[in-house]
Each structure stands twice: as structure tokens, then as C-alpha cells.
């Protein structure tokens, strides 16, 4: 191997190692917040949790605010696959109908049941399988009120969540789908956070399903609140 190629290989190895260290630090931020809240996020606590030298936390991140902001960004990225798969299923189902069919009440009734089921399954899976993630997300959202940097990231995250909801709602309401989308997102988020205070075995699946069926039915013009 030539000297140039050896140097390039060595550079790639160092970059890969640096990226792994950076990701370990960000995961450590998530773990510390989950266990101790934001007050526990210090460079020393993060270094200890990540198993790295203290100097590395300041090498990769200029300050605590940057650490928290980047940790939220990583958290947001980790959420994407599940959400994208959910929307792929939903829009594949919706695309099977044309505009005239979507105006038929019987079609909307069928879709309301399907959409409410998908939403309920997603909420219940988050509550049962990823409660720590929900709790940390809530902490991030609360902290965003005090941190301009984090607030910008949270707003971008919310915009990504809203985009497919607006697309969904616009298929049934051309006048103000953005309002419908915001109400639906807030309802889902509220249900997830409320469930955090309930033992998992006491979460009422039927209640979640009924709430989602009512809300989806309203969006599809099938009933009033």
C-alpha cells in the first residue's frame, strides 16, 4: 500500500472512531436525562456515563446546550424509521382510492376504522415499548422553552411530524387541514404523555381506540365532537 493510501485509510479510521465516540456521548446524554433529568447533564456526568475522558465532551461539543441540542437531534433521527413506515402503510392504503371514492361515506367509514387502528397501535406501542423515550421527549420539549437553540430543533422536529398529517387531512378537508393536523398531533402527544403516569398493565386499549376513532371520524367529516 502506498504512503498516500495508508494515510487515507488511517484518516478514515480516525474519523470512524471519532464518530463512534461522539455517538456514545450523545447516547450518554439521553441516558443521563432519563435517569436524572436535565439537572444531571454535566460534562463530568456525561463523560462517566459514556466511559470517555472528560476532555472529549468539550472537544466534540462546545457547551451543555450544544450537547442537549445534538442529543435531541439524534433522538429525532431515531424516531424516523417507525414513523416513516407507518405513513408508508397509510398512504399506500389511501392511494388505492380516487377523489370520488374518498367522498363516499362508506369509504370514509372504512378508512376511519383503519386510520384509528393504526394510530392506536402506534400510541400503545410507544407507551409499552418506548416509555423512556417518551419521558425524555417530554423533558426536551419542556426545556425548549428556555433554550433558543433547542427550541429551533424542536420546532423543526414538530414540522416534520406535522407534514404527513397535513397531507392526510388535506385529502378530506381542503379549507384548513393544518388546523386538523395540529389538533391530531396534539391529541396523540397528549395521550402518550398521559399514559406515562399509568402502570403499563392498566393502560386501557379500548379507551385509546375510542378516542382516536372519534377524532379521526371528525377529521373525515363523519361526526362532530
From TrEMBL:
Any Pfam family the entry gives: TetR_N
In this entry, the residue ranges of the DNA-binding region are: 42-61
* Gene3D superfamilies linked to this entry: Tetracycline Repressor, domain 2 (1.10.357.10)
Q: Which PROSITE patterns match?
A: HTH_TETR_2 (PS50977)
What's a Gene Ontology MF term here?
A: DNA-binding transcription factor activity
Q: Where is the HTH tetR-type domain?
A: 19-79
The record's SUPFAM superfamilies line, in alphabetical order, gives:
Homeodomain-like
Q: What is this protein called?
A: TetR family transcriptional regulator
Report the source organism. Answer: Pseudohalioglobus sediminis
Amino acid at each position: 500500500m502506498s504512503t498516500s493510501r495508508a494515510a487515507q485509510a488511517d484518516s478514515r479510521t480516525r474519523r470512524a472512531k471519532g464518530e463512534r465516540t461522539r455517538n456514545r456521548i450523545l447516547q450518554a446524554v439521553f441516558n443521563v436525562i432519563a435517569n436524572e433529568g436535565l439537572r444531571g447533564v454535566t460534562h463530568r456526568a456525561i463523560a462517566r456515563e459514556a466511559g470517555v475522558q472528560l476532555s472529549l465532551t468539550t472537544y466534540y461539543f462546545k457547551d451543555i446546550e450544544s450537547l442537549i441540542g445534538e442529543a435531541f437531534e439524534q433522538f429525532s433521527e431515531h424516531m424516523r424509521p417507525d414513523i416513516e413506515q407507518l405513513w408508508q402503510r397509510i398512504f399506500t392504503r389511501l392511494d388505492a382510492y380516487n377523489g370520488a371514492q374518498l367522498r363516499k361515506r362508506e369509504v370514509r367509514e372504512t378508512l376511519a376504522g383503519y386510520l384509528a387502528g393504526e394510530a392506536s397501535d402506534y400510541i400503545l406501542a410507544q407507551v409499552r415499548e418506548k416509555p423512556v423515550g417518551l419521558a425524555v421527549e417530554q423533558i426536551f420539549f419542556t426545556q425548549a422553552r428556555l433554550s433558543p437553540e433547542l427550541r429551533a430543533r424542536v420546532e423543526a422536529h414538530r414540522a416534520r411530524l406535522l407534514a404527513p398529517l397535513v397531507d392526510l387531512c388535506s385529502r378530506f378537508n381542503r379549507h384548513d387541514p393544518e388546523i386538523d393536523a395540529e389538533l391530531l398531533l396534539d391529541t396523540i402527544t397528549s395521550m402518550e404523555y398521559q399514559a406515562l403516569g399509568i402502570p403499563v398493565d392498566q393502560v386501557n386499549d379500548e379507551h385509546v381506540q375510542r378516542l382516536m376513532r372519534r377524532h379521526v371520524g371528525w377529521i373525515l367529516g363523519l361526526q362532530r365532537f
